[in-house]
Amino acid sequence: MSLTKEQVKELSSMARLALTEEEINCFTVQINEILGYLKKLNELSIEGEEPAPYGVPLNNIMREDKVQSSFNRDSVLVNAPQQESFCFKVLKVLEED
Amino acid sequence: MEIVEMSLGQLRKLLDNKEISALEMTKGFLGHIAQLDPEINAFITITEEEALFAAREADARIAKKEGITPLTGIPIAIKDNICTKGVKTTCGSKMLANFIPSYDATVVTKLKQAGAVLIGKTNLDEFAMGSSTESSYFGLTRNPWDLKRIPGGSSGGSAAAVAAGMVPLALGSDTGGSIRQPAAFCGIFGLKPTYGRVSRYGLVPYASSLDQVGPMARTAKDLAVLYHNISGYDPLDSTTVPLLPEKVNDLPQGLKGLRFGIPCESYDKKIDPGIKEKLLLVADLLEKAGCIPVEVSLPSLEYAAAIYYLIAFAEASSNLARYDGVRYGYRSEEQTDMISMFRQTREEGFGREVKRRILLGTCFLTPEYYEDYYLKAEKGRARMKKDFARAFLECEFMLTPTTTVVPNIIREKTDDLLSKYLSEVCTVAANLTGIPALTFPCGCINGLPVGAQLMARAGKEETLFRVASFIEGELGVVKGGIR
Description:
With 97 residues, chain A is mostly helical. Chain A has helices at residues 5-14, 21-38, 73-77, and strands spanning 83-84, 87-88. In chain A, 34% of the residues lie in helices and 4% in strands.
C-alpha cells in the first residue's frame, strides 16, 4: 500500500500543516520509503499479544482533591502571540449569519 | 588539575574545604563556556545572572553549613526541552523560540532545592527528534572530540557541554536513545532511567510513553549522584512509579556471581568491527571480575526500530497538535481564518524533520493504517517485553553496543533518511520495554570515543552503576573531549 501525492496532501490537512509543493513531493517519496520498511513488522509473530501502551505496568494514580494555587495570569499571557483585555486574541471563529 | 576536568567529588571537596567559593567556581565554568561555546554551540541560552545568584546562595549555605547536598554550588546544564521558570525553553524550534515557561519542571525544582547552579539550556534536535543535533533552529552543535563531527543527539548540547568540561553534569532526555547515543559519541556516561522513575512533569513531550529525563556525566559516580537527586515519586506526573529510589551514594564494589547477558541479536554484522572488539574487551574484564557471561536471545530486537518509529511518531503527531499559535509559541502573520492560521503557523514554525514525523504519525493513526501498523507495533512491544523478561531470568544485566558506528562528519548523512532512523537500533528497546539503560565510554577508535550499553530489569539502576563504575576503574577515565 503506497501513498499518492493526493493522499499526503490529505494527511497534511488532517495534521494542520500547510506544506509547500516541494515538501509534498519530498515527503511522499520518504513516507513511502518508511512505510515500505515498516512492512518488516509483518514477519514478527504477535499471535495472542495484547497491545502494550507502556513498557512498565502502570496504575491510575489519584491525588487528593485539594485547592492549590494556579499560575499567575501575567506569566501565562506573556507567551500569547496576541492578547487583548487579559484574553488570547484570535481571528473570528464563528461567522455571523 | 583545572576545575573543568574535575569530577563532582573533587569539586565538592574544593567547595567544602573553602578552597574555592561556589561563585568563583561558577565564574570559572562560565568563562570556559564563553571561550568554547562560540565554536561548539552546546548552549542555546546561558543563564549567567541566575547562575551567579544561585552560586551566591550556595555559598551562603556552605558558610552556614546548612542544607549542603552533593550538588550544592555545582554548575549543571539543562536540555532545552525541560521547562525552567522565567528562562526561555525553546526545544530547539522556531515554534518556541520565545517561549518562557511559567513553572519549573520537577527535575529543575529538585536541582534548585539541592542548591545546584543551573548555568544554561543546551541545544538539541528540534523537539528532540533526531540523533545528530543538526536540526536545531539555533544551529548545529559540534563534537568536542572532533569539531568536524556530530555530537549525536538529540541531547547533543548536553553531551558536548559535559564532554568539553563546560559543566561537570547535565540533564538530557531520552525517547529512543537521545541521552545514550550522544553520550557515547562524546565519550561520557549517560543513563535512561526506568520509565516513571524520573518525573516527566515539565518535560516538553515528544512520545509520552517513551520519554524519560536522565543524567549525563563524566564519571559513573557523578551519574549516580545526579540520578539520585532527580528521581522519585512525583504526584504531578501521571505515569510516575511509586517506588522508593535506591540509595546510590556509595556504590558497592565487587561483581562476583552477577550474570551478564550477551544478546546474540545485537552483535550482528552491522556493527563496526572496532566497536565489537571494545565490547569483547569489556566482557573479558567482567569475566575476570567474577561475572558470568550468558548468551541470551531477543528475537524481537530486530523489529525494535520499526516498533519504535510507529509508536513514537504516532504519539508525536498527537502531542504536537498543541502548537497551534493560539496561547503560546509562534503565530504566522499570514492568516485569513482560524484553520489557515493553524496550518500556516505549523508550516512556518516547525522544521522539516518535525513535519515529517507529524505526517507519518498522522498516517499511522488513520483508519487505513491503524490496525496494520500502529496496533501491530503495540502488540510487537508486548512481545518484546516478554522477550526481555525471559532474558532477564537468565541474567542480572545485559551488555550491548550503544551505537553501531562512531560519530559521522556533520551533514554527511542528512539525505539518507532510513539509515539515519536505523542508527538508533541499539537503544530503542530500553524505551519500549521501560527498562533502565546506561552507556559508558569503553575506549576510542581513531581518536573517537566508543560507548557500550548496559541494561537491567526495571528499577535496577543500582546494578548498572556498579558495573559501570567497575569498568571505569579498570579502563580509566576517558578525557579526550576536554578542551
